[in-house]
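Predict structure. Chain length: 418.
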Amino acid sequence: MKVTQEMLESVPFKYANDVRTGKIVTGKFIQLAVDRFFKWIETAHEDGYYLDHAAGMRVINFFPNFINHTKGAGIAGTPFHLAPFQQFTQYNLFGWKKKSTGLRRIKTVCDVRAKKNGKSAEMAGLALYVMADDKEHEAEIYVGATKEDQAKICWSAAKNFIESPLANPRLKAIGFSTRLKEIRFTPNGSKMMPLGGDSKTQDGINSHFSIVDEYHAHKDDGVKENLETSSVLRSQPITYHITTAGTNIQSVCYNYIEVCKSVLQGTNEEDPTLWIMIHEMDPEDDWQDSNNWYKSNPLLGSGLTMERMKEDFHKAIIQPSKQRIFKTKNLNMWVDEQDPWIENAVWNKNSDPVRVENFIKYGCAGGLDLSATTDLTALGFISNPDDKGCQDLLVFTFCPKDTIEKRSREDRVPYRFW
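Prediction complete.
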């Protein structure tokens, strides 16, 4: 695919090149995302895709032309310009298209970054763009969260972009209006609504753009799957996962992010419809070194100040109980629950593949735990120590398929995913 000079001089391409050269400090997975972008360009013709530069830039230009910041010292009332990393993602999301149909290539986004890095505002603006300019008649946009109150945070940001005294009047001028729980775009009948796991109804929806908000807090994939399955009749739906890290490494979110990482690393099958941006520090990075904080905070220095970060860091140092919050929220690090049975760091040290041959070579012992009513049935084997003193553990667990959804909700673990 030919890359024009205009494309090379655009912010998305400059961001990608700055990441590649190290001018912009990022973690491993953003670097891999950029490498994947350039690989997509190299193989676009044979893969059956093309990059529509005008379409990619159209969404980027929508923000400052139609949206004002409605809060924030020094920026309230000024045009909303997406940061380079945000432009890079939205350019790819709306720019990549299938040759055969001209429809959007990317249908799913995994976007992970620390708190206070513009998630809600960006999603709110993006929802308004999709309603007005995605050529989808009667598009339905949903912010999906565990609770409707959480979903309303993003939805309210979109409402404020329309109704605030500091709002850009052009949004109302082109047909946007608000209701108690709806934002409407009259020219094509599109609407935006918050949707929580506790919402009175989740039936009858026909989603075009689904925002899975703060995915780490979702106990299961009930809300997400309802949104995804509702979009089957849409020609180019989007499911956008947007989240910060959490404290449950058995959650559906953690497992999904691990799958996305494996795609970037090439250890899992490539998904040409999935876009991945995971802003996090690398495993070897010292979390107390402020130079590493840029990796998980792409807005650091551009709205998010180092001074504020260091204030929160100081609180975490003098009050160790606050370290878990600082790591998860400020640094986008997955940490253990309070007082875990097995520390995450210890568990990860024992994550090598099981060597099945050792059970025969060195012998083994097994144990069976049968369930009576609501417990799981478990069958486990542990090998005798090898020449280095290492042992392999192989465990199988079983539960009835009929109750797997109920168990997942009650135990807060993704049994069906496993």
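Summary: The chain has a mean pLDDT of 92.
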